[in-house]
Specification:
70 residues; mainly alpha; 73% helix
Length: 70
């Protein structure tokens, strides 16, 4: 689906929680509202996840150039 790689990246880093249905969403939301420390941890994890992808476009372009695809 759309953004599945990005969603997986965030989940692996602990920056997101996958929910399966409306009741699960409600439960997770209530947990996060009640736990500011966890929200802070998830925010920091999101930054780390984004930073882990820094330079990905340059790496892709270099690979395409190496194979003379651009």
């Amino acid at each position: 689906g759309n953004f599945s790689l990005e969603a997986d990246l965030l989940e692996r880093h602990g920056a997101s929680v996958r929910v399966t249905d409306p009741q699960d969403f409600e439960r997770v939301l209530a947990e996060l509202v009640a736990d500011p420390a966890r929200r802070e941890e998830m925010a920091a994890a999101g930054v780390r996840a984004a930073e882990s992808q820094r330079g990905a476009s340059d790496l892709t372009l270099r690979a395409l150039e190496r194979w003379k695809l651009v």
